[in-house]
Amino acid sequence: MERNFARRGSLRTLAGAVIAGVLMTLGTALAQAADTPQKLLFDTPYLTQLKLPSSLNYTYRHAATETRQFGKPFTDTIAIDLVKPDNPDHVNSVSMRIFTGERSRELGPNVDMKGNPIIMIFLERDLWEMKRRVGGEPIFYRNKIRRALREAAKVEPVDVTFEGKTVPGHKVTITPFIGETENRRMERFLKKSYEFVVADAVPGGFFKVRSSVPLEGESGKALVEDELTYSNME
């Protein structure tokens, strides 16, 4: 049975952030210039652009070459459900269905969510998996990611193939653990990268999120990789 971020403390962490509307847990106030990581990933009100009710569906894939340490590969689904709130003064009511079967967790409902929580779901799971597989505390990894987004992120325009068409988007890439020397167990993770692909034409904004640790000496192969991709909107 998978033990992931949505258990106990991690579930409370994410739920608290969602309820408070804090979709900037991994980012402090950045400049409000166009196309900053803060704006693209956290500040853009992707959910307010959707009709109600609707569901954003995503496919989650986990792959690893060393299954004993990183767990068996699996593919699962995550859904973000949006409905009209009971109180007309609110924008929406949002619930999250994370994985299925033994891995399944549910969060919400929460009202007035503007940013897409899918990025928090992905990153929180990633952080708790780092704790479980490597050691250390999620707050350490979270701070590394926050700093990388603020100071060392690469933002570039990309073409996204969506529903048979090419639409403009942006890719944000970070390698937050480069230069880390405090934790020797992290030696294999120093080149771990995170990629976020967003596009206005994609409902909910997020087209793909991926974290990947390259396999040393094997070009193009990953030691462990997690990827979330947009599937459809119902």
Search tags:
234 residues; alpha+beta; nine-stranded antiparallel sheet; globular; disordered N terminus
Overall structural class, as computed from helix and strand content, comes to: alpha+beta
Strand order of the largest sheet: 4-3-2-1-9-8-7-6-5
Total number of helical segments? Answer: 5
Relative strand content: 25-35%
Describe the global form.
globular
One letter per element, helices H and strands E, the order comes to: HHEHEEEHHEEEEE
- Give the count of structural domains: 1
The largest sheet is:
9 strands, antiparallel
Helix share bin: 10-25%
User: What is the terminal separation in angstroms?
Assistant: 29 Å
Average pLDDT, all residues? 86
Indicate the radius of gyration in whole angstroms: 17 Å
Low-confidence segments, given as residue ranges, are 1-13, 15-33
Number of strands: 9
Note down, in words, how this protein is organized.
With 234 residues, this protein is of the alpha+beta class. It is built from five helices and nine strands; from the N terminus they run ααβαβββααβββββ. Helix 4 (118-134) crosses helix 5 (138-151).
